[in-house]
Amino acid sequence: QVQVVESGGGLVQAGGSLRLSCVVSTRIGSVNTMGWYRQAPGKQRDFVATITASGSTTYADSVKGRFTISRDNAKNTVLMQMNSLKPEDTAVYYCRADVLRAAYWGQGTQVTVSS
After folding, report:
1. Per-residue DSSP letters for 57-71?
2. In terms of C-beta density within 10 A (0-12 exposed, 13-18 middle, 19 or more buried), how is residue 13 classed?
3. Where are the beta strands (DSSP E) in 8-90?
4. Is 76 helix (H, G, I), strand (E, B) or coil?
5. R_g (Cα) of the chain, nearest Å
6. Torsion angle of alpha carbons 55, 82, 7, 97, nearest 10°?
7. How many angstroms separate the CA atoms of 11 and 29, rounded?
8. Which strands sit side by side in the sheet containing 18-26, from one edge to the other?
């Protein structure tokens, strides 16, 4: 009843940019907070950025000033512009959407930053 689909990952050189996109389809309620998390090999899934339905944003310290999260409520879409990418940003990036106090996750999209 809720589908979360990410796109936009890929391979980029250090210093480059990528933009991730996530579209949420729901028939059970409106989408509240949306966000991005990432998981590097052998590590836990970590918070990257979130944005509320009213547009308030929060970022992990490691991405502040480099990543920008935004959303289009009419399209249930969240974007994340990633600039000045570093090799340590390499991970699978997951989109999260909160609907009726439950969290829904996408399948993830790979971001690889080469040095």
Report:
1. EEE-TTTTTTEEEEE
2. exposed
3. 10-13, 18-26, 31-39, 45-51, 57-59, 67-72, 77-82
4. coil
5. 13
6. -30
7. 35
8. 2-7, 18-26, 77-82, 67-72
Return all residues near 54 (Cβ < 8 A) that are at least 6 apart: none
- Residue listed under structure tokens 């689909």: 5
Q: Which residues lie across from 71 on neighbouring strands?
A: 78
| % residues pLDDT > 90 (the chain) | 96
Locate 22 and state its tokens. 């996530």
49-89: per-residue pLDDT in tens?
A: 999 999 999 999 999 999 999 999 999 999 999 999 999 99
Q: Which two tokens stand for residue 37?
A: 């998390």
- Cα angle 96-41-57, degrees, rounded to a multiple of 5: 30
